[in-house]
Write a structure and sequence with these properties.
Helix 1 runs antiparallel to helix 6. The protein is about 55% helix and about 0% strand. The chain is globular. The protein starts with a helix and ends with a helix. The protein is mainly α.
Length: about 110
Amino acid sequence: MMIPPSARDRIEEKLRRRICSVCSESQPDGSCGLPAQYPCTLFRHLDRVINLVTSAKAESMEAYTRRLREVVCSNCRLDLLSGDCGRPQDRICPLDIYFPQVVDIVEKELAVG
């Protein structure tokens, strides 16, 4: 499903307001503390995540999470520390940590838009 750029922009804006403000990488001034060479996985993979949510229409968060691992995590090799993730159980990836909130925002925005 192709979403309009305006819907994607609204999703990104809502994610930045809701998630970046509570993220452990957030700086006191509200900016992201991640180094430029390690972009936030949440925004690096946002288009894939939006497509995953719109195409999956999962019955449960577990089903969405399985799809996240299959579609996004299996193709992501950027870990904040080592450059090789593959360890979602460590819960250091912002996309993984905040995934339920991401799904909620995407679903709500696309239901309205």
